[in-house]
Amino acid sequence: MVDSGRASWDVAAFSARSHSLLLAAEGGLESRDPATGELVATVGVSSIAEVDDGIARAGSAVRRSAWRNDGALRARVLFRWAARMREQSERLAELLTREQGKTIGQARGELASSISMIEYNAGLARAIYGRSLALKEGVHGVMLREPVGVVAAITPWNYPLNLTIRAVAPALAAGNAVLVKPASLTPAIVVAAMQLLADDELPADIAAVVVGPGGTVGDRMVTHPEIDMIAFTGDSTTGINVMKSAADGLKRVSLELGGKSPNIVFADADMEKALAGAENAIFSAAGQICTAGSRLLLERSIRDEFLERLVARADAMRVGDGLDPATEMGPLVSREQKRTVLDYIGIGRSEGTVLAGGTAVEDGGLEHGNFVRPTIVADLPSDSRLVAEEVFGPVLAVQTFETEEEAVEIANASEFGLACGLWTNDLNRTWRLGRAIESGTIWINTYHHFYGEMEVGGFKRSGIGRQQGVEGLLEFTETKHLNFDSNPTLW
Ligand code: NDP
Which class for 435: exposed (0-12), middle (13-18), buried (19 or more C-beta within 10 A)? Predict the structure, then answer.
């Protein structure tokens, strides 16, 4: 059951069929609105016995049902899931804003891209081709793509819907069974969306949601011998620990982790466009995006003008409740996240110059929420923690460069390699930097545009494997060689 002063949410009511995909007893985890502190949802917590049972049933289902061999069946189920999500998208967007804090416009965007991701993978479900080769006279080899088995999808709170669906849709399209564990701060939106997957043609136990702390429920999934693959999205340190735990069972892992992405503006760029891009890169979703352009690298000759105009934009941003259509930046997800972000701003204050923001919002009816003003910090030493570490909040660290070579050197001087922005009108430079920068995604004269068709993922400490696109689906498959020999004698 879900309850709040502003609206009453019953996550179970999102179920399209009587069968619930949530493996949990009544009550348990409380989700709170980060803008007001109000209770948004109470979601059942799964016991370890329920997790074990769900894994065993998923293993049995994926071995025994037609699911693993029938791409057309999987496509039908996934397309219908997308259709139900579209029908409910306004309610789901509101729940997402209430639970996570992002603006309603951003929540609608997350819904649209999640639905599109399901549809893309639904189409791919019928196109998972292998290869074949005539190897020698009378001998043929056939390479098959088969599902891995039971996939554990463990997901974070910042884009809870999109990042869950980014794993679940390709895993299901490839014929696997999936157990999802959402972040404990945002379980309701994930449970609500997963309930809409319930379908007359979905074999029982192929998909389920378990809810509970990462340290217990998540760890059980990672170490359980019958989990074949872990698709993890979250913090780099957690991801490294997940990989270590998974190593004992030699499980396949896909890790989508943190970032500290450089957004590089050259003097020849369209300044108006680059300003809007820099603002979006760091302040969208209050900076709680793995790909946030949290390091702004400015060519020295435009530094002062660019910063003056960016500070004016940051100061003018309307911070508030995400459900208010006028709001441009919502709250941070939790009190802990607000404290972490304010601590990083403290580092900025002592080591650099805070040009914009730098404080929490404690008035105007926002005192019960986790609001921090859009913050810009310049003049930081290159070894500052604010330059090196992921803040996951609306805090921009500004750096400057003189030459293209120096821009590349600063951009690559990071343990992360998730995303990068390049703003320039020099086509040859975009090619040179596009090759030189160590990053899974490089946006040229744009930022934060994702496409279900295009793979994303991290270099260095930002992850292993790719999500989205064809490669993202193939991550959820095993390759098998069938060898046919029609010769009368073998040796
Ligand atoms: P966390 O790593 O803290 O948590 C991610 C998920 O892992 C949660 O469901 C969490 O559960 C679970 N978890 C925590 N500990 C364990 C464990 N020992 N074993 C198994 N599961 C565990 O990340 P956040 O939720 O704080 O998300 C923010 C981070 O995610 C940022 O670093 C961000 O950069 C990264 N991220 C990366 C993306 C990418 O595509 N590269 C996309 C979005 C975010 P619980 O909530 O119960 O703790």
Answer: exposed
Cβ–ligand 1 distance for 215 under 6 Å, the answer yes
pTM of the model: 0.95
Q: Kindly report, as residue ranges, where domains of CATH 3.40.605.10 are found in the chain.
A: 11-257+464-479
Ramachandran angles phi, psi of 126, nearest 5°: -95, 10
Is residue 226 a contact partner of residue 152, using CB atoms and an 8 Å limit? no
* CATH number belonging to domain 262-451: 3.40.309.10
Hey, which of 114, 159, 233, 245 would you mutate to test ligand 1's pocket, going by the most ligand atoms within 8 Å of its Cβ? 233
216 Cβ closer than 6 Å to some ligand 1 atom: no
Question: Which atom of ligand 1 has the smallest separation from the CA of 182?
Answer: 9
Across 450-464, b (16+ Cβ under 10 Å) vs e yields: bebeebbbbbbbbbb
pLDDT digit string, tens, across residues 37-48: 999 999 999 999
Each residue's pLDDT tens digit, 164-201: 999 999 999 999 999 999 999 999 999 999 999 999 99
| CATH among 1.25.40.10, 3.40.605.10, 1.10.3210.10, 3.90.400.10 for 11-257+464-479 | 3.40.605.10
**Farthest CA pair distance, the chain:** 86
With a 6 Å cutoff on the Cβ, whether 241 touches ligand 1 is: yes
